[in-house]
């Protein structure tokens, strides 16, 4: 699947990306956090939950699974959906961002 991404903001131990997949825009939150759904409320603003789309959450625990987990979640998206990737280590976080064409130290666009 051809995918374009743009880093739009940095958050505490994470990043917010806007991606375009098959000409459809999606919001992606990538954070280095425990694999606990309670973390999502600290990452995703309330208005994201109030929109028409769903918020998908995936825990990413192993660097070997990053690409396949991302593809699995992307395959199930509908317009207006957002995705949260909870990365359980610094390496998994870096690898997840790399799958979206970003680096952990890339500055956000203004």
Structure commentary:
With 110 residues, the chain is an alpha/beta fold. Helix content is 26%, strand content 35%. It is built from four helices and five strands, in the order βββααβαβα. The protein has helices at 40-43, 46-50, 66-75, 90-99; strands spanning 3-11, 14-21, 24-32, 55-60, 82-87. A five-stranded mixed beta sheet has the order 1-2-3-5-4. A hairpin with a 2-residue loop joins β2 and β3 (24-32). The protein is globular. The N and C termini lie far apart (27 Å). The model has no long low-confidence stretch (mean pLDDT 87).
Which properties best describe this structure?
globular; 35% strand
**What does the radius of gyration come to?**
13 Å
The low-confidence parts are: none
| 3D shape | globular
Number of helices: 4
Distance between the termini: 27 Å
- Global mean pLDDT: 87
- Per DSSP E runs of 2 or more residues, the count of β-strands stands at 5
Q: In percent terms, what proportion of residues is strand?
A: 25-35%
Structural class comes to: alpha/beta
Q: State the order of secondary-structure elements, H for helix, E for strand.
A: EEEHHEHEH
**Can you list the strand order of the major beta sheet?**
1-2-3-5-4
State the helicity in percent bands: 25-40%
